[in-house]
């Protein structure tokens, strides 16, 4: 479930889930990891993917501030979980040697990052709005880890993007799951966007 930053933090005290069916919270759906999980984890794995290493030059693309909260099906926050994301740069290139158009990769884009959920289950990333590449609608891969245990692997999509309806993985989800995994992008100033998520495991 994605909403505006103001609404998200207002809900943290008493979480409300529009993705509810017959009184049950819908869990965030599993989706495939895909072939482009980084085959070389970068030295810089922090939650700011727009700046790579010690460089002061920011990656190209539209900046997206992704904030989230991880809860269980009783709406209780889960702390100490590792959240990983990976995605393409502005040219549709992954941090992977087998990626499409690998020679066009934006080296200023970290491509992969980690964030640890705090006592309230919160996590955050500074990244860019994903772009499409051949055969896929724009998306961000997300994985939750409890130490080495994979708790969830999923993909986050842009709400209302015209390529969603043709994407083979997006179409595999139910309408409710599609809603849960769709990001509503809010422009917070002249150059940056934000979105907020509640993940249920």
List the helices and strands and how they pair.
Layout: E1 2-3, H1 5-11, E2 20-21, E3 24-25, E4 63-71, E5 82-86, E6 112-116, E7 122-128, E8 139-146, E9 149-158, H2 168-172, H3 175-180, E10 182-183, E11 186-187, E12 192-200
Parallel strand pairs: 4-12, 9-10
Antiparallel strand pairs: 1-12, 2-3, 4-7, 5-6, 5-8, 8-9, 11-12
Question: Could you characterize what this model shows?
Answer:
The protein has helices at 5-11, 168-172, 175-180; strands spanning 2-3, 20-21, 24-25, 63-71, 82-86, 112-116, 122-128, 139-146, 149-158, 182-183, 186-187, 192-200. The protein is built from three helices and twelve strands. With 201 residues, it is mainly beta. Strands 1, 4, 7, 11 and 12 form a five-stranded mixed beta sheet that branches. The protein has a five-stranded mixed beta sheet with strand order 6-5-8-9-10. It has a two-stranded antiparallel sheet with strand order 2-3. The chain has one domain: Aromatic compound dioxygenase (Protocatechuate 3,4-Dioxygenase, subunit A).
Characteristics of this structure?
single chain; 201 residues; mainly beta; Protocatechuate 3,4-Dioxygenase, subunit A; five-stranded mixed sheet; 3 helices
